[in-house]
């Protein structure tokens, strides 16, 4: 009977314990899974820029930035689904589509030049959900009060 118990332990319990330990190691080594399609790592030294998306307006606190790495935190404060896309200087990156109340991060390195920040969902861009972003020079406010 003792050999039967030992055989049972070797065939069932030991592999189950090993599988559980392996699963724990894989979870510990996994990434945090950033949000967005160019999603960022919140531990980088990127400057944070909060973007407020409403129906149908894209608000940035500044329309002129210095070249460098930025994490855009896009928040959908509207009543419709929205996303944020940044296009210019050979780059085109966007967040996932966000339901009302959701946010997503997009970390991107901006070079000197002009960029368009807009909502790529449906015809939202045509409805005015866009703004220009100038990279280079000194930072300025766009006067929106946001």
UniProtKB/TrEMBL annotation:
Domain of life from the UniProt record: Bacteria
Any one Gene Ontology molecular-function term assigned to this protein's record: metal ion binding
Gene3D superfamilies given in the database record: Cupredoxins - blue copper proteins
UniProt KW keywords: Copper, Metal-binding, Signal
InterPro entries associated with the record: BlueCu_1_BS (IPR028871), Cupredoxin (IPR008972), EfeO_Cupredoxin (IPR028096)
Xref: Pfam families: Cupredoxin_1
Keyword Oxidoreductase appears in the UniProt entry: no
Signal peptide, first to last residue: 1-18
Residues in EfeO-type cupredoxin-like domain copies: 44-123
Protein name as it appears in the record: Copper-binding protein
Organism of origin: Streptomyces spongiae
